[in-house]
Amino acid sequence: MLEFQIFISQIAGVKVMFIVTLLLLVVLYCLKQKKDFYKILFIIISAMFVTYTLKYILQVPRLETILIPENDFRFPSGHATMAAVVMSLVIYYAHKKVRNVYLRYFLYALGISWLVLVSYSRIYLNAHILIDVTVGALVGIGATFLGVRIFSK
Fold first, then answer.
1. DSSP state, 70?
2. 119-151, pLDDT tens digit by residue?
């Protein structure tokens, strides 16, 4: 179980999410989907800006019982922020673009499951407590909501 939680935490980490996001942005740009390109870029930058600003203003130290090496502050969870951004974008685009109801609900469930899985792995590994992942998720959802509202005009 520990190895699985470490694996989830690693694939939801900043480096992997940065590479995946960069690939998505390149694809959107090449497909001339510039509005979606700028919308997602804005969402990711604003979510991470808020998360890391809070981390460095509040400077909440990591738990002493953490099971993995981490070298930044604990609150809020950057992993939960990015997982919430991914979840919110999956739900938004599934609702907007997927006509098949069963596929749409499957994508909703997949997005929510991703957020729950990542958040649970961070708590399991003692990298965070519940409030850390909750606030991180709220930052990600809020950034997505804001980005969608701004770029829908």
1. -
2. 999 999 999 999 999 999 999 999 999 999 999
d(CA 119, CA 114): 8
Q: What angle do CA 101, 109, 93 make, to 5 degrees?
A: 60
Question: For the packed helices 101-124 and 78-97, what is the interaxial angle rounded to 10 degrees?
Answer: 180
Separation of alpha carbons 142 and 140, rounded Å:
5
3-state helix, strand, coil in the chain (%, to 5): 75, 0, 25
Which burial class, exposed, middle or buried, applies to 101 when counting CB atoms under 10 A from its CB (0-12, 13-18, 19+)?
exposed
pTM score above 0.85? yes
Tokens of 22: 């960069």
* CA pair distance 78, 47, nearest whole angstrom: 9
Phi, psi of 69 (to 5 degrees): -75, 125
Contact 116, 10 (CB under 8 A): no
Q: Are 11 and 127 in contact (CB under 8 A)?
A: no
